[in-house]
Specification:
Helix content is about 35%, strand content about 15%. Helix 4 crosses helix 5.
Length: about 200
Amino acid sequence: MSFEENWQNSRWPSLHGVLAATQVLGCVIVRPVAQNCRSQIFSPVFPLRQSTCNRSCSTPLDAVRNTRSPTMTALENVALVTEICEHPMDAVEALEMVGLADRMDHFPAQLSGGEQQRVAIARAIVKRPDVLLCDEPTGALDYETGKAVLAAILRVNEQLGTTTVVITHNAAIAGMADRVVRLADGHVVSMETNATKLGVEQLRW
């Protein structure tokens, strides 16, 4: 059975929220595609929080969550993650990739909501994950800040080759995706490929 047929035949009666969708995707996509994959979830609803799956995990998504330290700078928060994973990116490189080269020495309380989102992305990508699952990355942000976060996610996808899944209620974001899967009442109702993708600057909501 093809990937598309598997999706179309999937039924999750209790799947009604984006967080549930994120967890299900971690189980039905990450594990079958690669038993030894490294996946990373970042949830902007709780800034700088992630769940990870690495080669030592017995389940697709580890329940361990790392929260930011208010007494550590953005750089120190990202660098801390590199101490618990194999072959990490340089923390400075990760922050530069999400556009925070000039904010590395700032503490969480000195960062805007959008900047905290991008630190969360940096903390996720510094582990070099194979898959990045993004739960409502623009949910609590204004338009311009939301676009800055999406631009950071797009750079990760294009420059690192990280498979990136964005789970959101914001339908406008679909314009920048390679593939769009729509859910309704726990069912997959459609799957389509964007023949022409929009740039982040072209998105409107």
